[in-house]
Predict the 3D structure of the following.
Amino acid sequence: MGRGRAANYEGQREMILARAAELFARGGYPGTSMNQVAEACGLSKATLYHYYQDKYELLVNIADDHVSRLQGIVRETLAEPLPPEAQMRELVARLVEEYANAQHAHRVLTEDVKFLDTADRERVLDKEREVVRGFAQVVGELRPDLLQAAMTKPLTMLLFGMINWLFTWMKPRGRLDYEAMAPLVADLFLGGLGAVEAPAQLPRQRRA
């Protein structure tokens, strides 16, 4: 009989993906070696190959796992019996939460998807397109006139720009955390600057 998988096999795979995503995000996919991944994981290179056959498989799994989670968020939220504005706020809140917990994977998805083979890249991009369509659908429900003017996708991409840029300028120990920022993004997108309401209570500023 062949040797079975260890009880923590899936946990080890997730840990490896997280470390690899961090390395890819910081040094780029081409500039990162399997030796570096193994060292970051505290594993021998031989052990690393027990979980992933090569660096490319790491890239595929990081990108596909992350975009699949985004796809799942959109599908679940659109299935909820909510009015369009509530759906949009839920989508924004859940996307910000996901990005906050997967910043490295998201950077890999946006920066390194070009290194995927055609079939893998198209599969990942198809899932990204579904995410965009889901947001654009809600924009169209909020403003049917924009749907007729083919403006829902451009506005969706502007919204994604706001969400994506959060993670380039926000300080993890600043006065506003990601949970507080999500409704501000939704307010700004749905109603403009005049609709933005300051949080009732800001998180305490943490000391370094």
Remarks:
- The mean pLDDT is 89.
- The two ends are 54 Å apart (CA to CA).
- The first helix runs from residue 9 to 27.
